[in-house]
Amino acid sequence: MTTSRRGAFAVLFPGQGSQAVGMGGAMAEAFPAAAQVMQAAERVFPGLWKVCREGPEELLRQTVYTQPAVLAVSVALWEVFRREAGRTPAAAAGHSLGEYTALVAAGAMPFEAALAVVRARAEAMEAALPGGRGSMGAVIGLEDEVVEAICEEVSRRRSPLSGEPAPASVVAANFNAPGQVVVSGLIEALDEVREAAVRAGGRYVPLPVSGPFHSPFMAPAARTFAPVLERTPMQSPAFPVVANVTARPMPGNARAMQELLVAQVTSPVRWAGALRAMAAMGVSHFVEIGPGKALTGMVRRTLPDAVALSVQDPPSLDAALARLKGDGLI
Hints:
- The chain has 330 residues and is an alpha/beta fold.
- The protein has helices spanning 25-30, 32-44, 48-54, 57-60, 63-85, 98-105, 111-127, 144-156, 187-199, 219-230, 254-266, 271-280, 294-302, 314-326, and strands at 8-13, 91-94, 134-140, 170-177, 180-186, 203-206, 283-289, 307-311.
- Keywords: Acyltransferase, Transferase.
- Pfam families: Acyl_transf_1 (PF00698).
């Protein structure tokens, strides 16, 4: 699926790590459409809306709360944005968990079904590796190939956990932007990657996540999660949704989309590639819809000539709409 529109806008949806206590509150107070989404989320996951509004932060950081919470708030913001913009985006993409939000936005998956799927996904990912054994970290300032080579060298010196399908103890998991690669693996291997990255002239920033996501260590989660997705109703998206795994628009049939979502659990997120694919489709403006501004920064680093906007509360909504209107896109 492609588009010939030039100077079009795409919407982007964040994943785990963007959460913050209070997220979505101002938009739900100002717009009934956002409040209705959060009320629907509450019916599927009782107590979720309170955790979003009030915390505690320690609970919101737990994967089984974080993923459904970020999905629900992002969909709530999207419902407001789409009504106010009055124009269908040329494309969408979501970072990791955010891919489910993108599919909801494109009409490929019902919101309540997506919320249930994401909760099951979070539980499976949390259970895939014993707590504290694995995590993730961002390597800043090195080329993709250098980071991949560091991971391969560290893995050659180490043995994976007994019985694990992965031949590596650490892998490059998210190709977010030029000079920003997230690595994922065992804690001890991540320590070695940090030391090697610093020696190579880069920086290493540990991420506050509870497991080695988007790595082969998540294979047990993928096996557990696959049957849940197979039972989830899906249909062809109304506009292109660019996949994390391939950095290409998802196919229109449900089975193929489900297979990509299962593969996403163990595969790298090719985010910079997805942004470049949308730019090649004619997208000039990218609107991040959801808590945080991490994706906005990634757009600016990957596509310096693109316009990067963020929508997370009423003032940022007004600013994004004004820019899109001023540039003639809505």
